[in-house]
Amino acid sequence: MRDALNRVLELAVVLNDDMTRDLERRGLTGSRAHLVWELHRRGPSTQQALAGALGVTPRAITGLVDALVEGGFVTREPHPRDRRATLVTFTKRGERTAKGLERDHIELAGKLFGDMPATTFRGFTRGLDVVLARLHEIVT
Amino acid sequence: MRDALNRVLELAVVLNDDMTRDLERRGLTGSRAHLVWELHRRGPSTQQALAGALGVTPRAITGLVDALVEGGFVTREPHPRDRRATLVTFTKRGERTAKGLERDHIELAGKLFGDMPATTFRGFTRGLDVVLARLHEIVT
DNA sequence: TATTGTTATACTCTATAACTATA
DNA sequence: TATAGTTATAGAGTATAACAATA
């Protein structure tokens, strides 16, 4: 069991390193890519909404949006009905980048699972579900 | 396949959050715990050796060791045969903490896998091995 | 000359708290 | 009063580069 946990942790680390390298190729850090990912799912969003989605404080969002504006990925647009708020909105480049992230995600899933025998894949995902359920019990 | 990747990523995130909470209870951050873990495996080590083990620069080790000395987990002892080097060495508290980390690790593995049916566990670990192998191919 | 660990400097991410403008 | 986002300040982790002491 300890070995299984070690391999799960190894998977997490190597996966993170690999994904980080891909993000850097697209001019993003992990945190900035996370924001781009959520913005892609939600459409133009207030910074409050993004803070909730990413689980960080509004102050952290200010920094991430500053960097993404600087990099030409997003703009801050005035909220149509609340002059306190801004709507973080993709530029063309941001849109392209978000779609690229999605392609990377699909491609990675294919590389990891694509040529895995169906029975192995089912066994893996079944175990994964059980582990995730246990983990959520622990956290609660 | 995309869903399987998403669940692997979810596992990584929740596992990391859970372990981080446990580390904080022991007065450690993730990076400092990583150093403690390696020191436990290797015994008293030079900062160069720790930099290699953790995959960071010697400068980063200086900061981590400073914090661990401050927290009473380790001391810097003179190297017996090389006056340039220091041997990072556990205090009693550091020793106890390292053993505590090991117990936490075993306990977590037990919670995650302990009551899993043997066939489910085997299916999971087999899939895990395949995924890890694919991932290491990708990274290479 | 090469290595060990330091200081100097900088960047990313995060947090809390005080503040401005608006609701 | 409450909310959206900012500035101010701080801490953790990391990197590169220049440097001192020692090998």
- Reading the helices and strands of chain A in chain order gives HHHHEEHH
Number of helices of chain A: 6
CATH class category of chain A: Mainly Alpha
Tally of domains of chain A: 1
- pLDDT average of chain A, as an integer? 97
Largest interface: A-B, 44 and 44 residues
Query: How much helix, percentage-wise, in residues of chain A?
Result: over 70%
| Rg of chain A | 18 Å
* CATH structural fold name of chain A: Arc Repressor Mutant, subunit A
- Within CATH, the superfamily of chain A carries the name Winged helix-like DNA-binding domain superfamily/Winged helix DNA-binding domain
Stretches with pLDDT under 50, minimum 5 residues of chain A:
none
Q: What would the principal axes of the Cα set say about the shape of chain A?
A: elongated
Oligomer: homodimer
How far the N terminus sits from the C terminus of chain A, by CA atoms, comes to 22 Å
Structural class based on helices, strands and sheet pairing of chain A: mainly alpha
Write the CATH architecture name of chain A: Orthogonal Bundle
Strand order of the biggest β-sheet of chain A:
1-2
Strand percentage of chain A: 5-15%
How many strands appear in the DSSP assignment of chain A? 2
Instruction: Report the biggest beta sheet of chain A as strand number plus sense, adding barrel if it closes.
Output: 2 strands, antiparallel
